Amino acid sequence: MNKEIEEAIVKSFFNKNKQQRVLFELFSPQKRRDALCRLNHNYSMMLRKEFMIQIPKSNLDRNEIERLLTEKGAGNICYVMSINEDIDGKEMALKTAIDQVYGYGLSSIISCINGKLAYFQAEQEYGAPPRFIIKRTL
């Protein structure tokens, strides 16, 4: 886990009134999962809507998601926050991260440019899960 990257993600993309609680939980081994699980059902209350761009259902192919992120400036390496413990808190290739998150079905954030560009996938309920690019002005 990289606290500096995670703090930038939270301060850039989470609603101000949720930031301190989320940071506390993320940095606590006993509560980390609570913070990430909160994104499953309540992401619209947790994340700043003004930066969220929903990916149209017609663009839900994992290669298309990678292309969209790359067009917006994503490099080859990213940082992942996920309920999936195998990839949570790790840096990895963008393609690998998308492949791991894509079929998982629970919430994940892939940070492509720290505090500026990320991919968020919410929990899958019916059909494909909601997927977003989160982008602040670069």
Automatic annotation (TrEMBL):
Q: Which domain of life is it from?
A: Bacteria
**What is the designated name of this protein?**
Uncharacterized protein
Q: Which organism is it from?
A: Neobacillus massiliamazoniensis
